[in-house]
Design a protein that fits this description.
The protein is mainly alpha-helical and 211 residues long. The chain folds into two domains: 66 residues, Helix Hairpins (Orthogonal Bundle); 109 residues, Iron/manganese superoxide dismutase, C-terminal domain (minor pseudopilin epsh fold), CATH 3.55.40.20. The chain starts with 20 loop residues before the first helix and ends with a helix. It binds manganese (II) ion (MN). Manganese (II) ion (MN) binds next to α1.
Length: 211
């Protein structure tokens, strides 16, 4: 089965004013779609053509060298964006607020408080030079950690490739294509506004399923 572009779980303008409709349309319909197309091109006719994006990320190091680069970028890009759309929701309608339950407990245990977590996560997003992602990952046993990866790498690819590991439960795209139309160079404003659309219920489900 070729990889497919998932439908957005909300309308293109649903995350406004924090993420504008034009950015959302181009980001999902052009950028994410291109990762899917290019991943399928690289997969065509190979023995791993029916692997999921998650399997391709987890087992990237096992792929032949000529496929590793294109799939690192494009299966990675597909997996990352597929997560990204689902961990957001319209502000006040599932988006924003604070984590609850076991996820809140894990965040407090790791960072001291939700505010301290937000500060550290924003620093990871701001500190990523050029294009990449900031992540909150769960480790076996339930501990949560923050890290950042370049380009379309993600922690599923493992420490040797991505520089950090774990199961991502929250990811923030800090490529300029994610914010430049509305925020221009002001990445900090985008990161600050993004908290208004984080779907903590979904992140909590991913936390529970991820360890
Ligand atoms: Mn993106």
């Amino acid at each position: 089965m070729p990889l497919t572009l998932p439908t957005l779980p909300y309308t293109q303008d649903a995350l406004e004013p924090h993420i504008d409709a034009a950015t959302m349309g181009i980001h999902h319909g052009k950028h994410h779609a291109a990762y899917v197309t290019n991943a399928n091109k690289a997969l065509d006719g190979t023995p791993f053509a029916n692997w999921t994006a998650e399997e391709l990320c987890l087992k990237l190091g096992e792929l032949p060298e000529d496929k590793r680069g294109p799939l690192r970028n494009n299966a990675g890009g597909h997996w990352n964006h597929s997560l990204f759309w689902t961990i957001m929701a319209p502000a006040g309608k599932g988006g924003g607020g604070v984590p609850t339950g076991p996820l809140a407990t894990a965040i407090n245990a790791a960072f001291g408080s939700f505010d301290a977590f937000k500060e550290k996560f924003a620093a990871a997003a701001m500190g990523r030079f050029g294009s990449g992602w900031a992540w909150l990952c769960v480790q076996p046993g339930g501990k949560v950690e923050i890290c950042s990866t370049p380009n379309q790498d993600n922690p599923l690819m493992g420490k040797a490739i991505a520089g950090c590991g774990g199961t991502p439960i929250l990811g923030l795209d800090v490529w300029e294509h994610a914010y430049y139309l509305h925020y221009q160079n002001r990445r900090a404003d985008y990161v600050g506004a993004w908290w208004n659309v984080v779907n903590w219920e979904k992140v909590g489900q991913l936390y529970a399923a991820g360890h």
